[in-house]
Amino acid sequence: MHFLPFRLKNFLILALFAFPILALECYHCDSLNDGDCQEDQVRHEHLKECNPLTFGPYYERVPIGCRKMIDKGLSPYRITRTCSYMGRRVHGRRANNKLVYQCAESRCNSSKSQQNLLFIFIFFILFPFLNFLK
């Protein structure tokens, strides 16, 4: 008994070999040092692979997600993007004039405009392709 059509089964097998499992990637930048690290924009050059920590009390801790912090206590605001090694998913949690965003997916600490592009890709490119496979 076959559960998947032959074409779909071949596609899934090919996809497993063609796309290796990707490590977690997050944007790393600080608006004090990088003029292109703003709340509504971040350049692709700031995208880095997140590796286990190599020093400190959390030595060898693996990353669990990405983080973006907006420090509104400074003028101008300070935007920091990095990998996250502890905590949980939060969306705009306030702490001492800071807004903290933490998420578990790769590249999720980008700007709002880049997240909109991802939605457009999924909705207009990927969704019709998956319907084609039916």
Automatic annotation (TrEMBL):
<keyword id="KW-0472">Membrane</keyword>
<keyword id="KW-0325">Glycoprotein</keyword>
<dbReference type="InterPro" id="IPR031424">
    <property type="entry name" value="QVR-like"/>
</dbReference>
<keyword id="KW-0812">Transmembrane</keyword>
<dbReference type="Pfam" id="PF17064">
    <property type="entry name" value="QVR"/>
</dbReference>
<feature type="signal peptide">
    <location>
        <begin position="1"/>
        <end position="23"/>
    </location>
</feature>
<keyword id="KW-0732">Signal</keyword>
<feature type="transmembrane region" description="Helical">
    <location>
        <begin position="116"/>
        <end position="133"/>
    </location>
</feature>
<keyword id="KW-1133">Transmembrane helix</keyword>
<dbReference type="GO" id="GO:0032222">
    <property type="term" value="P:regulation of synaptic transmission, cholinergic"/>
</dbReference>
<dbReference type="GO" id="GO:0030431">
    <property type="term" value="P:sleep"/>
</dbReference>
<protein>
    <submittedName>
        <fullName>Protein quiver</fullName>
    </submittedName>
</protein>
